Structure formats: structure tokens, C-alpha cells
Amino acid sequence: MIAFLFFLVFLLVYMVFAVYAERKLSAFIQDRLGPTEIGPYGMFQTLADLVKLLQKEDIVPVKADKWVFLAAPAVIFTAIFAGFAVMPLTPTLQGSGAVVGVFYLLTIVSIDIVGLLAAGWSSNNKYSLLGAMRSVAQIVSYEIPVGLSVLCVVVLCQTLDLQEICYQQGIYIRTLPVYSESTNYLFGIKRLGIDMTEVGGFLTWNVIRMPLFFIVYIIFFIATLAEANRAPFDIPEAESELVGGFHTEYSGFRWALLFLAEYGMMLLVSFLGAVLFFGGWNTLFPNIGPVRLADWTSGMPGTIYGNITGAFWIILKAFIGVFIQMWVRWTYPRLRVDQLMHLCWKVLTPLSLLLLFISALWKLL
Amino acid sequence: MQKGANNSYFGNIWEGITSSWQGLKLSFKHIWEARQRRTPIGITDPDYFKQETGIVTLTYPYESLPVPDNGRYRLHNEMEDCIVCDKCAEICPVSCIDIEAVKSTEEIRKTSDGHSVRLYAARFDIDMAKCCFCGLCTTVCPTECLTMTKTYDFSEFDIRDMIYHFSDLSPEQAVEKRQNYETLQTAKQQAKASTTNVQPTEEKTAEQTSTTPATAKPVMKKPAIKPVTKPVITDPTPSISEETPYVTEVTPEISQTIQEAAPQDTKAEETDQSEQAPAKPVMKKPVIKPMIKKKTDE
């Protein structure tokens, strides 16, 4: 319940400031100032925008399929928000400790497609329908590289539980009864014989436990970018050609909900990336001999300090992920549909298959 | 590596990776440089071209680039120095200056450069909404009282506020000055006491007394004058086309006569427009319009 309330409030606050951050970041990349008027440095610009949005009329087109049209934004947002249920926020705080966390996450996020298609199709607008169809084609295609790259991690970690994956990547691995006998070796190679269990920090993150995971992460990042309909994979929205894509006909609060879902999706995949590859709630700093940086910067699981540091680290990592997503968005132009499919089927999918094979072998080393 | 040099599968991937990385580096460079920003210094400043990186936007109402002293923006007329010569109104290509002069009975004052002022400006309106900022009016101005200033931000919510009134006389004062002049003139003419001249003077005084309230409401003027001009011009069309060359260089007097001679079929339209904007330069337009119409008819 705490996790639910936390994520609900956190997501709303995050969305307000993520939109602000995105506007500022895009402005800086383009040598502009961005919002400056409302509040210090224009910080309350999004709040003002939100107030304006909530005052707007909730327009339903006459020829639209009314109930589907009205329900679609709720479906999209619910699907994405449900994804946060299995996110381990701290060593002890997690909405649902599902054993099949990763599997659940990939499934529930796929419901997002249903919402997108419903929104686009029920609008009874050619742009919306085109956007929805593109969206479905894109997301269904990119599910495969996402699934394969997640599978690489699952193969190495031997678990689908996101909380367990987090525990494996830090100094507290042995506090979990399942792993009380486990040892973390440098690069995950037992034969090197370098014990990293007590060192922790970034040295036990999955990207170090299996160095090729950095490439896997890039695949994961690109594919989730496409899943989140973010530029350069924003052909479902494609402002310049499809007006607004699947959300062309939405206004007011429902439009805000779609926007919230988009930013929520960004955060969700950034969280997932942090958990799978960058140690989740584990600290960045390793213990170096007597300098117990890892112990100092992350408390014991279950303690208040442990909760605070855990939340701090995972949110920091997720925000860095969101930052990279924004940075990428304001750098690249939109991909053409054929380029999009080329990248997915001819580049990312074979590469992730190869990496999955190598990951499976790595576990045997 | 040159673009497309290795057009194979792996070559394309490699090029995609390297060029994408270049792009990310470039945009990150801009984020990094966003710590600096341009300051509002003018082109005359030696450092103007020094700031090549960072944010270029200026938060305009709070900061703006300085305008050089010879900036040619809003017009200003220094009424103290104006001799109401009407040259600026004549040269203006868009007819945005509207002057109505009233003769004075004596020299009013001397301008700062020694010209004597003998005319009152009953009206000296500049419509900045029409102004094309060519600066011709300031060039012809003999006393250099009409100048262009550095002020460029003078937008208004109401277009009528774009008309700047420079006249230093109130409408009542203008009426008074005009009456002063007329009484002087009639006194002079009575002193001459020539019976043959009585007829035209009467006509003239009648015309001028009737134009007296015209500053406030030009609509009033028409019924008084029309019967006068009607018998003179029997066939309006040829006489108007004769007058066309004068129309192009409009002086207030000529424009008035044209108004008088305006064909009756446009009467309704004219009264409409003059009612909407009395005593505004808008008045001139309906006059010129029928002229052009007549021309094309020929």
C-alpha cells in the first residue's frame, strides 16, 4: 500500500517536473532559454499548463466510438501504472513481491498496445488510426528485442523476481536466505577467483558481472525507447505528419492522462533498466579495504537508512535513464517506418539473440 | 570516415553507431555550453562577436539589444520647432501624416533655428500604423523638428491609439484662432470696400465658417458645400479625371475640394465611413477610391 501511494504521488510530481526538465533540456540543446516566466527559472510552467488542461472541455468527436474513446486513456495509464507494482523501490519496499516480476512487467506493459489501438481506432480519425496502427506495428516488433535483452539478464540471474535481481548486484546478497551461500566474482567468472561479494558497489552490477551487458543495455534502451513511443521512434505520434497520432482527438484531462502515461512509461523502462543492469537500489560506491564506501552509502535492508539510500539510488539511476531518453530525443530525427523495422528485425533482434547465447555460455564459466 | 563509404551490413551499422555518437556528443556539447549566455550588447561593442557559444535568447521585455542612436523607429515631432509647412505630409508615400493648418494673425514664435512660425497646426496627426519608416519626412523637414526616435516597441491594443497627435492646440483653441484670422480678413476686406469683390468674399467666408466645425465633425460640412460645387461641375466624370494628377500628390486643400466634388453615387458609402472615423486620415481613402473607379470606366 505504501508503495502504491508512493508511486502514484511520485509519478504525478515526476511528470510535472519531467515535462519541465524536458522543455529546459531541449531549450539548452537548441541554445534557447526554455520556460522562464512562471516561478523561479520557470519551474511552475507545467503546473500552469496542467491547470489549463484540467479546465478544458472534454471533447468526444460525434462519430467516435464513445465508450472505447473515453476508456482508452484510462487503459493506457492503468497498464503503465500497474507496471510499477513489481518495481523494487528499496530492499524491503515493493508493491508486489511477485516471483514472476519480469514476466509480469513485460505482459502488463503490452496491454498498453490495446489502449493505444483503442484510442486511435475509436477516434474515427484517419490520423489517429494511422498512428495507432503504426504504434502497434512498432511496439509488437520491439517487444522482441526487449524480451530477448531482458532474457539475457534473466539467464544470468536465474530468477524472474526483480527484488532478487537487485539483491544479487550488491553487498547485501547474502542477507537473502536464497543466496546465503552465493558469491559474486569479478566479471562473473569464477575461475578468476576474485571475490567481489564484500566489495559491492558498481563492481557487482550486472553490467560488470557480465561486461557484454553494456551492449545488451543499449539494445534494451533502444527497444524500450520504441516501446515508450519516444523520439526517434515516435512515428505513432509524429506531430509533423500525423498531427498528434493516436491522441489527435483527445483534449483536456484525457489528453493529460495520455501524456502522464507516456512519461510514466519513460520512467518505468528507466527503472527496469536500472534494476536489470545497474544494480537497482544498490550503491554506486564499492568498499575499498577499510574505506567502507558501500556500507556508508547504503544501509542494511529493513533499516530506515537502508530504505532512504535504496530509494535514492534507484531513483537517481532512473532519472539518469530519463535524462538520456530526453537527450536522445532532442538529438535524433524521427526514423522512417522501413528504417524502424530494419533496425528492429535486422539489427537488434539478431544481435540480442547472439548476446543471449553468449550470456548463457557466460553463466557456465 | 566518409558517409556511405562501406555500404555493407556491418559497415552501415558501424556508420550508424559512429554518427549517432557524434550526434549525441554534439547535443551534449550544447547542454554543457548552456551555462553561458549572450549578454545584451550592441553590434558596436567590440565583444559582440566574441560570444559564439551558449544560449542566444534574450528575455526581451527585461533585456534587449541596444538600438544605435540613429535608429529609425517611431516618429516624434517637436512642436515648438514646427512651422507647419506640410512638406512631410506631401512627401509621405503612405500618407500617414495628416496636417490641418490655421493661419495666424501675426507671427506666433520663432523656432530654435530662426524660422518664424506663422501657422497653427490645428491637427498634426501621424498614423504610426501606416508609417513605412522610410524617413523621407525627416529628410524634407526644414527645421528638423520631425525626427525618428529609438523607440520601436509601441504596439497598442486599439489600432486608433497608433495615431499620434502632436498638435499643441485644443479643438476649441483651433476654432478660436481660425475665427480670429477670419475676422481680421473680413475687417481688411471691408476696409477695401470694393463692391465687386463682395460676391467671392461672401462665398469664401461661407465656406470657411462652414469648415470651422469640420475639425470635430466633417460630416457636417458636406450638405453646406455640395450645392455650391454642383452647379459648377455639370458633368462630374471629365472634371474629376482632369483633377486626377493632383490627387496623387494630395494636399489638404485639394483633398477637400475633391471631397466636395465627389460623385453622389458613393454618398452613402462615404457618410458611413466618415461617421465611423471622424477627423481621421481615413477620410481620404473613400475620396480616392471612386476616382480610380472612374478611370477604369473610361
UniProtKB/TrEMBL annotation, chain A:
It comes from the Bacteria. One of its GO terms (cellular component) is plasma membrane. Its EC number is 7.1.1.-. Keywords: Cell membrane, Membrane, NAD, Quinone, Translocase, Transmembrane, Transmembrane helix, Ubiquinone. It is found in: Cell membrane; Membrane. PROSITE patterns: COMPLEX1_ND1_2 (PS00668). One of its GO terms (biological process) is aerobic respiration. The chain crosses the membrane at residues 67-86, 98-121, 207-226, 263-284, 304-328, 340-362. Belongs to the complex I subunit 1 family. NDH-1 shuttles electrons from NADH, via FMN and iron-sulfur (Fe-S) centers, to quinones in the respiratory chain. The immediate electron acceptor for the enzyme in this species is believed to be ubiquinone. Couples the redox reaction to proton translocation (for every two electrons transferred, four hydrogen ions are translocated across the cytoplasmic membrane), and thus conserves the redox energy in a proton gradient. This subunit may bind ubiquinone. This is NADH-quinone oxidoreductase subunit H. It comes from Xanthocytophaga flava. The lineage of its organism: Bacteria, Pseudomonadati, Bacteroidota, Cytophagia, Cytophagales. The gene is nuoH.
UniProtKB/TrEMBL annotation, chain B:
This is 4Fe-4S dicluster domain-containing protein. Gene3D superfamilies: 3.30.70.3270. InterPro entries: 4Fe4S_Fe-S-bd, 4Fe4S_Fe_S_CS, NADH_quinone_OxRdtase_chainI. Residues 182-219, 252-298 are annotated as: Disordered. Keywords: 4Fe-4S, Iron, Iron-sulfur, Metal-binding, Repeat. Residues 182-200 have a biased composition (Polar residues). Residues 282-298 have a biased composition (Basic residues). Residues 71-102, 122-151 form the 4Fe-4S ferredoxin-type domain. PROSITE patterns: 4FE4S_FER_1 (PS00198), 4FE4S_FER_2 (PS51379). GO terms for cellular component: membrane. One of its GO terms (molecular function) is oxidoreductase activity, acting on NAD(P)H. The keyword Metal-binding applies.
